Amino acid sequence: MIGLTFYQKVYELVRQIPEGKVTTYGRIARRLGSPHASRAVGYALHVNPEPVITPCHRVVNRKGRLAPGFAFGGPEVQKQLLQKEGVEVSKDYYVDLDRYLW
Predict the structure, then answer these.
(1) Is 70 exceeded by the pLDDT of residue 2?
(2) Could you give the CA distance from residue 35 to residue 4 in angstroms, rounded to a whole number?
(3) Which of 15, 20, 49, 61 would you call most buried, defined as having the most Cβ atoms within 10 angstroms of its Cβ?
(4) 71 vs 21: CA distance, rounded Å
(5) Is 87 in contact with 79 (CB distance < 8 Å)?
(6) In this structure, how many other beta carbons lie within 10 angstroms of the beta carbon of residue 101?
(7) Burial 45-83 (b: 16+ CB within 10 A, else e)
(8) Are the CB atoms for 57 and 45 separated by under 8 Å?
(9) Cα separation of 8 and 99, whole Å?
(10) What confidence tens digit (pLDDT) does each residue in 15-63 have?
(11) What is the four-CA torsion angle of 40, 99, 70, 29, rounded to 10 degrees?
């Protein structure tokens, strides 16, 4: 990942999240060596230029809650995308991190 911008590193890492799993903004930031950059990770995913290639719907907050402003259609769309992959999402838009965390 040498030579890549922070956003490119975020996208590369998010592409590694397996179908049926989720991770958090903070875990991505920590894996990239920037533990205080979870908001920057969120913004990078908000402006994700390739949502089909970079599955930003697999990223949730530290409590497992879906993004209230999911950039590609809101939390209901994010919920539907995760459910298609076999991830259970509660009616109040939470994912069980003990079960689905990557």
Answers:
(1) no
(2) 18
(3) 61
(4) 19
(5) no
(6) 14
(7) beebeeeeebbbbbbbbeebbbbeebbeeebeebbebbe
(8) no
(9) 28
(10) 999 999 999 999 999 999 999 999 999 999 999 999 889 999 999 999 9
(11) 10
The β-bridge partners of 60 are: 24
**C-alpha to C-alpha distances, 27 to 13, 15, 42, 76, 99, nearest whole angstrom:** 10, 14, 12, 23, 16
List, for residues 73-102, the tens digit of each pLDDT value: 889 999 999 999 999 999 999 999 999 999
The DSSP 8-state label assigned to residue 16 in this structure reads T
Residue 84: name the closest of 55, 61, 62, 60 by CA: 55
Active site residues: 56
The residue to which tokens 């995913």 are assigned: 45
pTM of the model: 0.93
